[in-house]
Amino acid sequence: GLAIHGYDPVAYFTDGKAVAGTSALTAEHDGATYRFASAAHRDAFIADPAKFLPQYGGYCAYGTSISKKFDGDPNAWKVVDGKLYLNLNPDVQRKWLEDVPGFIAKANTAWPEIKEQSPEVLNAQL
Length: 126
What we know:
Radius of gyration: 14 Å
Structural class: alpha+beta
Low-confidence stretches: none
Largest sheet: 2 strands, antiparallel
Strand order of the largest sheet: 1-2
Strand content: 15-25%
Mean pLDDT: 96
Shape: globular
Number of strands: 4
């Protein structure tokens, strides 16, 4: 599918903001299509995709910390220690920003256990 709702993953690092990509500039990675705002961004991604990929498959970083898979909003983002994190929405992001290191640690622990599970199954569990 279309990754990050069509936003350019490189722009978060180079422009410091969410920038919509164009369907004319794309790259495939692990079955997902990424769009880019410029050929330079596309080429940088192709050269080192791991540097620009959102963490947790683009799912919400806070959601991952509680073993859920919520869609990441490309406008609710933060780069921490050179890694891109998305959140469900600005309200959830405010909660996540209260303890970024703690939530990242919890998400890093949870991700290997939930990575292959479907969002529908995980999110249905209370």
